[in-house]
């Protein structure tokens, strides 16, 4: 029997209530065995699924206690913090925001959440450390809502494709919930995570009837009840996703291309009513979203700009993407898709292979939908493989599609119909996934796969690189202890005199690879002043020039290994971080035998150096933060071995440029940072050293204290 031409899905089933559509070639005798459920039960089921997903992802957000990539914070939370608390709040805005490469829409959502929650807590006059704790946790909680919606719309689109009476939608939902990558990344505030939710939601609202062509709907597939409204919702969501991440356009080029092909190839005229409606809505919805985006960027940047154009200009014309890494062409095939799907990879590959994008008139609507989704995956992976800089999260929006395509094959592999319900007409995996009684098979394999997923998710979210987050908790609580009168959230909320006093202290110096920790979103208080090594790209150089090839950013210069075999970092600290250190370390010996005039000049020079330190140029911090591999560097620079100061001589001063700075390093905190790290600079424990130049620091609790 020929399959029905339309997948009614949730929207149509809720409207018609009594109709049950299926895209599988099941016999009427098989369908008759499916128990029809009351519409109120169906609505309650949808509500229950969404509620459980919201609770699940909320727990997920609280359990993710590790650092993954800096974009989670510096491309979302830092500009959001600036929106909520002002430009003087201490937020670190990277070069992308200074040159308008990013859309302000994503930070605006987070910034409004910051502002609303902080306003409510301020109205209730809550204790500042508690307010800081809530603000740190807020972005993950908000993102957990988007993560739950991603799971929900994956299930919803699978129902639209396979039918409610199929087990495949539940398989797709289970894969989404049990996927380690989803657990690890879905509640992080990457723009890719929001892009993932927007993409699958737009696909769920997309009127797939257009793939059936005009003949199946008597020339008007978009004239059905609610079809234009559904199209508008899909286009708005898709437009926002494209503005957030321009590469998302590749997904919609495939979907729109095949939709237009089916509308034109199966109709008498390419300019039929459905084609005109589709073009009209694309223009109207795209223009509306673009206008909102332009206004948002105008309010954020202070002038009119178009971030997608700037993104293309800097990454393609200026070739700056290569500055952040170069991967082989097969990266997404050999690493990207396997990391996304993990143990579900074989089923995803089978689903992609089986779902060829057909344009034949005889193809069922279900086959057309699956073929279009497969084409979207292949289009995005192929195109992004041509770009030098690649990351797994760039293809993150494809993960729900891969789950949906893999669903019938994972059902067919791990279940089989009971003997009493097996029919000779079910010959494909999709036909075997009806909700007739089934039994599990390959149970040991299934248990091993699920155990491996749980192990990966647990390790990555709790034990792999947790120190970059916990060190900021330590610094924030130390600041709360040492400066209880400076716990304000906006600089203008504090008295001028106290602010002036606090500005003399650099609380923390991070000698780590650039962006190794979050920043103001976790430090919170603007009075908590901190400094870190930067890694600005060579914007001033021409692509392919010798100057660009030789360029080293600040972090690279610190970790640069010298040809003379000496410890890296010592010369950087002496020449760039504390350029006054060499002269101050030997100033006493230099002043011996000087004339009065020379002494006065030397004293004036030292006074200028002190003023430079106090004004922020080479000032000594209260705490130094770094991975334990830099401890010998610090000891070599400050002339301190195993916590003991040595007698100073001229030769020692030359070997230890910072000996005369009065620094006596003491470990006051350290934390394990995972079993492995591919970056040698980040290996080992993360350590906080007290410099000993301020009173009341953590060193009073005992030298060498570890946590």
TrEMBL record:
Membrane topology category: Multi-pass membrane protein
GO terms of biological process kind: GPI anchor biosynthetic process
Cellular localisation: Endoplasmic reticulum membrane
Signal peptide interval: none
Associated pathway: Glycolipid biosynthesis; glycosylphosphatidylinositol-anchor biosynthesis
Transmembrane segments: 130-149, 233-258, 278-300, 337-356, 368-388, 394-414, 446-464
GO CC annotations on file: endoplasmic reticulum membrane
Keyword Transmembrane helix set for record: yes
The EC number(s) this enzyme carries: 2.4.1.-
Keyword field: Endoplasmic reticulum, Glycosyltransferase, GPI-anchor biosynthesis, Membrane, Transferase, Transmembrane, Transmembrane helix
Molecular functions per Gene Ontology: alpha-1,2-mannosyltransferase activity
Biased composition (Basic and acidic residues): 1-21, 600-616
Keyword Endoplasmic reticulum: yes
Region of interest: Disordered: 1-24, 600-620
Class of this enzyme: transferase
Family: Belongs to the glycosyltransferase 22 family. PIGB subfamily.
Entry function: Mannosyltransferase involved in glycosylphosphatidylinositol-anchor biosynthesis. Transfers the third mannose to Man2-GlcN-acyl-PI during GPI precursor assembly.
Protein name per the record: Mannosyltransferase
Organism whose genome encodes this protein: Parathielavia hyrcaniae
